[in-house]
Design goal:
- By secondary structure, the protein is mainly alpha-helical.
- It has a single domain (7-39, 76-280), classed as MetI-like (MetI-like fold).
- Helices cover 73% and strands 0% of the residues.
- The protein has helices at residues 4-20, 22-40, 76-112, 114-128, 132-143, 147-173, 177-184, 189-225, 237-244, 253-280.
- The protein starts with a helix and ends in a 6-residue tail after the last helix.
Length: 286
């Protein structure tokens, strides 16, 4: 029997649930708006985010510079908008890295069980024992600072969360009748995991992926704030916070405005993640 119509109907129902959640819709709208700004920022006619003008150092917001200027006379408005590219690029690549590697390892460990699952579970527990930021600092210190280091470090810190989530779902799903029936008709283990079990893991993994985006944005900003992430003069929001901390009294806008941008984007992903969790939960009533 073809199950495609049923899956389509479930998708439609989940979308309707999501659209009823005003906070989730607000989060989605903010994310799409920031994504659009990040894509279109080179063609918006903004000032060069790297251009220095020492005649307007530490100026407050004005008609010429909407967010003011920093300690080098650079336009903060253009730097914040261009910084959206870097922030979203880092977080997207990092969460995809954690998702792909963590899901694969969790699937293998949960499906095969025994010694393999024991090793996967032990390593996951060890990684989860370290706070995410501390684990990311250790990784980026080993491979060197920079955007590549931040992507690898934040992606690596997300792997154990995806392993734990996938492993738990697979341990539950592999004992169900549809998996037993697939084995009975001669389906291979890889086919059972890819065609039957993985689709049932996707809803929970999508929610985790969305929530991890906010966490990774904070970790990446923290690494850049400590000088381990994007290096000046790149307009990355965490690096901008770090550059402005010496001027919190005389020119607080240098740090406050990038900080507000980080707060809004993280809040948007959290709102969307909460809405997706409710919309994709089959126990929620229509």
């Amino acid at each position: 029997m073809n199950r495609t119509p049923n899956r389509k109907s479930q998708f439609v129902v989940s979308c309707r649930r999501l659209m009823r959640n005003r906070l989730a819709v607000l989060g989605l709208a903010i994310i799409l708006m920031i994504l659009l700004i990040a894509i279109l920022s080179p063609s918006l006619g903004l000032q060069d985010p790297l251009r220095q003008d020492f005649r307007v150092i530490n100026r407050g917001p004005s008609t010429e510079h909407l967010f003011g200027t920093d300690q080098m006379g650079r336009d903060i408005f253009s730097r914040v908008l261009y910084g959206a590219q870097i922030t979203l690029g880092i977080s997207s690549l990092a969460v995809l890295m954690g998702f792909s590697i963590g899901t694969l390892i969790g699937m293998i460990g949960g499906y095969y069980g025994r010694k393999i699952d024991g090793i996967v579970g032990y390593l996951t527990d060890v990684l989860l024992a370290f706070p995410g930021l501390l684990l990311a600092i250790a990784v980026v210190a080993a491979i060197g600072p920079g955007i590549t280091g931040v992507i690898v470090a934040t992606g690596f810190s997300s792997i154990p969360q995806f392993i734990r989530m996938t492993r738990g779902i697979v341990l539950s799903e592999k004992e169900k009748d549809y998996v037993t029936a697939a084995r009975a008709i001669g389906e291979s283990s890889s086919a059972i995991m890819g065609r039957y079990i993985l689709p049932n893991c996707i809803p929970a993994l999508v929610v985790l992926l969305t929530m991890r985006m906010g966490v990774i944005i904070l970790i990446a900003a923290g690494l850049s704030f400590l000088g381990l992430g994007a290096q000046p003069p790149l307009p990355e929001w965490g690096a901008m916070l770090s550059e402005g901390r010496e001027y919190l009294v005389t020119a607080p806008h240098i740090s406050i405005l990038p900080g507000i941008a980080i707060m809004i984007l993280v809040l948007a992903f959290n709102l969307l993640g909460d809405g997706l969790r409710d919309a994709l939960d089959p126990r929620m009533k229509l």
